Amino acid sequence: MRRVLLASCIINSLISFSSVATQITPPSAGSLQLSSEFAKPVFINDVILPPIKPWSGSSETLLRSADQSWSTPFEQNGLTTSPNYDETHQWITNLVDNSELLTQVSIGKSPQGRDIWMVVASETGATTAAELSQSNKPTVLVQAGIHSGEIDGKDAGMMLLRDITQGNKEQLLDKVNLLFVPILSVDAHERSSEFNRVNQRGPVDMGWRTNARNLNLNRDYAKLDTLELQHMIRAINIWQPDLYIDVHVTDGIDYQYDVTFGYNVKEGYSPASFEWLETYYRPEIESALSAQGHIPGKLIFAIDNTDLSKGLSYWNPSPRFSNGYGDARHLPTILIENHSLKPFKQRVLGTYVMLEQTLKTVAKHGTKLKAAIYEDKYQHPQRIPLTWETVEQPGWDFKGIGYSLEQSEISGNEVVRWDGQPKLYPNLTVMGNTQPAINTLRPKYYYVPAQWQQVIERLSIHGVRMTTLTKAKTVKVAQYQFSNPVFNAKDYEGRQRVNATSNKVKFETTLPVGTVEISTNQPLGDLAILLLEPQSADSFFQWGFFNSIFTRTEYIEDYAVEPMAATMLAENEALASEFALALKDEDFANDPKARLRWFYERSPYYDNQYMKYPVLRSN
């Protein structure tokens, strides 16, 4: 009966909300009541979220009052809102116009025609990538709003830029440059509502997760189907950052950490960068966050959101994600996942602390960072993992929140009820996909036929170096031949993904003029391998760029196969023996179409490109 009453009170409370309210009234007597030790409701969805305790930290001293000069829209509006696209651009433009340290550039336009702005912050006031490069300082690129509802990085970055240019933190740029993209998914940012992210505590209005074409930008780093990601990757190639930070807000379980962050794994494609991040970056960031009243943690996912005893997941991301892409192209990339159940104010301040300390850490250890990147770019290992197996990792002590399971009379299932009380879960099991499964030997070259223009274009956007043959070239190559293709039953991110059994065949061939030759002996050689090897999960093949090779376009009529087959059997004893052996398969023997197709596939009339991968590799 208590659970029915609880559900009724929640529903009644939600119905009573004004559609434009930014504050909510605590439930009336007889409805859901929170203990005084828990925070009062602030956002419209607080009443249906787990209880939290009030937070206060030293980082609150970073805030300016609403009436102070250069207060941000976030500070002007009670620390619960985030400005829209126009308000953000206007405020940043005013800041840029009043500082010799800042420049603002558009990295490109969105599908709906909005500029994606990037602020360049440097001691010299550099206005171009060439000028920035002349400083010989490491460069940090901070990107907010790839998921536009997860916008903490925008407001934190605005505060930090304000304090650098209009406060007392100009020295942060003495030994490091900063690139700041306040909103990447600009169209989704304007699809804003107080009802967009029910599991997240603010801001009041939040943008949409996917872009105007309903594509998830943080699944697009490999295939580059979206304009937004194409612009971002071009910007990375032009401005050449040494550290890339992608700011998110997480979903999932409740826990004590308010700022979690992760990056590539030691076993991945950039081991030297991993060592720098573990040795220098994480300790200094976690120390700064802790000193300011925040609780930092590793990037955290539960294996089962309803049962923490099953342990945690350690993630080795593939190149479709920002941090997996950074691993593949040897650009150290930090994925920040602030905790969605912590209030917006707390998350913004935690992000500010992390970004400020990032500039200090990179300034202090920038030479070692550049050396690590150089080592990763030019190690060129001969064996490249394409897929990974999950194995057990060292256990973690997990700063969680207590919970119980209750039988729901709404869903009929057991549901988690977080109680808001801190609880330590010692030495939890951790599983991670860190053991190589399928490997490939590094080829010297790949060859892409000129007609596969979309693939060539995407490789070019990634920055992969390519040469177009101006005369025919005879080479010994290997080609994948496929069988048993399996297509996803549903589209994923606008594409029909495919997997297939492959067999590698070696031969000599003459490549025509216009063929694109790609050497793997280059800084982005590992990325090229992961994009072009069919067994790689984020290869162009598996993303469906080559699906047309599975379409048969030429056929032969039965009346033509019959006499041709008779001639083939009469003139080729080995073929006759092979056919006799095939007839021992009862299913084949009883399938007239299969028997005729057997001869067609062995005739000179058969399509010799059917189910063959057009990209060749040469050792």
From TrEMBL:
SUPFAM superfamilies listed in its UniProt record: Zn-dependent exopeptidases
Origin superkingdom: Bacteria
Signal peptide, first to last residue: 1-21
Co-factor(s): Zn(2+)
Active-site residues (renumbered): 337 (proton donor/acceptor)
Record's protein name: Carboxypeptidase
Transmembrane feature ranges: none
GO molecular function terms noted in the UniProt entry: carboxypeptidase activity
Domain Peptidase M14 span(s) in chain numbering: 81-362
Hydrolase as UniProt keyword: yes
Annotated family: Belongs to the peptidase M14 family.
Keywords in alphabetical order: Carboxypeptidase, Hydrolase, Protease, Signal
Keyword Ribosomal protein: no
